[in-house]
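Re: that backbone. Tokens:
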């Protein structure tokens, strides 16, 4: 518990050490989504540097150091795998679990109950979801809704809806399945290949609940969604405007946007010509 990076992780979340309870887990989930951005800027830069040849996701110390230096967060494999490490350091009983054919979630066991935790989907999962004694669970941030369905065979479906319409694939998972990071290596390898989703776009998303909003960047399209239902969308016309938005609206002053856009250019991806 005296490890400096552990102390830094707590400091990032603005939390003190508490007993591993459901109340504390709720605080952690909410703080995570308001602190670490869901982004692929770091992924693109790791790819350029060839870091994926040495490791599938950044080592835990590297993850923490790079948030300090560059405001790096990550996508599901990075964010959830490191949260799982952090939870274990705090005394929680937790493990990774495969969700669908491409996603990673976390199962936390508390007082005989199992909870689904996920801070790596750019989704409004602000609280752990109880997976026992309940058929369905819904959580939302205005028109962005996550629907967890108990299939009554030991498995659950993860369904996302935007503006009332299904968004993406249905992901199924079994909370009794316990995985570790090595079980995801083939999926991570695939996700790092040019042409895969997060190797073809510029993506950054962060919740800002104190401001009652979320902010999202997809290529050059900047969207703010407010808790009162209002939404604003701005099309950005230059790298300078993107940097200004990431700095001023997201508050991620160290995120190396120019470098990530350079990598996309090298991969023949023009974020200003793509429909987003």
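Recovered sequence:
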């Amino acid at each position: 518990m005296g490890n400096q990076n552990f102390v830094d992780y707590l400091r990032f979340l603005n939390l003190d050490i508490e007993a591993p309870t459901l109340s504390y887990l709720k605080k952690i989930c909410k703080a995570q989504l308001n602190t670490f951005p869901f982004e692929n800027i770091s992924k693109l830069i790791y790819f350029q540097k060839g870091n994926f040849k040495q490791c599938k996701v950044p080592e835990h110390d590297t993850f923490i150091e790079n948030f300090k230096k560059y405001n790096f967060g990550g996508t599901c494999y990075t964010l959830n795998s490191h949260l799982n490490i952090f939870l274990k350091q705090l005394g929680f009983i937790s493990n990774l679990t495969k969700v669908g054919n491409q996603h990673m979630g976390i199962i936390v066991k508390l007082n005989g109950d199992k909870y689904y935790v996920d801070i790596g989907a750019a989704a409004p999962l602000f609280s752990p979801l109880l997976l026992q004694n309940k058929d369905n669970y819904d959580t939302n941030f205005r028109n962005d809704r996550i629907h967890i369905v108990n299939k009554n065979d030991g498995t659950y479906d993860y369904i996302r809806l935007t503006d009332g319409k299904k968004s993406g694939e249905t992901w199924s998972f079994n909370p009794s399945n316990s995985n570790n990071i090595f079980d995801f290596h083939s999926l991570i390898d695939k996700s790092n290949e040019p042409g895969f989703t997060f190797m073809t776009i510029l993506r950054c998303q962060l919740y800002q609940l104190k401001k009652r909003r979320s902010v999202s960047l997809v290529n050059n399209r900047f969207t703010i969604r407010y808790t009162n239902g209002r939404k604003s969308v701005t099309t950005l016309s230059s790298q300078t405007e993107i940097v200004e938005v990431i700095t001023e609206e997201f508050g991620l002053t160290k995120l190396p946007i120019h470098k990530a856009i350079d990598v996309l250019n090298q991969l023949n991806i023009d974020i200003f010509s793509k429909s987003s």
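Residues 218 and 233 are 11 Å apart (CA to CA). The chain has a mean pLDDT of 92.
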